[in-house]
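Long-time lurker. I teach an intro course on protein structure, and each term I like to show students one example going from raw sequence to a predicted 3D structure in token notation. This year I'd like something fresh instead of my usual example. Would anyone be willing to generate the tokens for the chain below so I can use it in lecture? Attribution to the forum is fine with me.
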Amino acid sequence: MVTEDLSITTDRLVLRLFTPDDVDDMYAYQGLDEVARYLYRPPRTRERCAEVIGEICVPPAWEKDGDSLTLAVCRREEPGVIGEVVLKLESHYARQAEIGWVFHPAWEGRGYATEAAREMRRLAFERFGVHRIFARIDVSNTASERLCERLGMRREAHLLENDWTHGDWGSEYVYAQLAREAERADRAPRTAEAGEDRAGQRTAPAG
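-- Reply from a regular --
Happy to contribute to a lecture. Here you go:
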């Protein structure tokens, strides 16, 4: 089990494990149709949010395929959760992990998702020893596409009609980045981060 402190503080945000007190905040965005459309599942009920928090409120073992870490994203100056970032261990042997994010639409366009995802990427590479991260993004989710590009991730694949959702075929982009590529991206000048955050993308705890 990962036992070290997983709280992360940036200039504007605090990333931490969820607690049972966060149920209403999670439901406020996970219960929205406009958020669920990018997650390939129905919106969550409040009861399901409580169940999910019960599953993710402890650190993961991070030793077998499928282990995942979900951190609540909060603004430093205000109480309450505005979204979440997720890291899922796809292959322990090959040190591959999937990264994702889900945010309340009310906090779009302020760069919070990029700021949080950048810290989750750092956690993956520097603390967990991941070799490669990747993100699967619905092709209509241009906000998450731009977020990946802000992180310096490259588009590796365009999967055509690879999933059936909401009564129609869905297509995805796969973005990825190696640890050494992230180091170069972090040294490069950053573009403005405002304007990119919208809803979420596919990676998220099940259900």
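Some talking points for your students: The longest strand covers residues 154-165. The first helix runs from residue 23 to 30.
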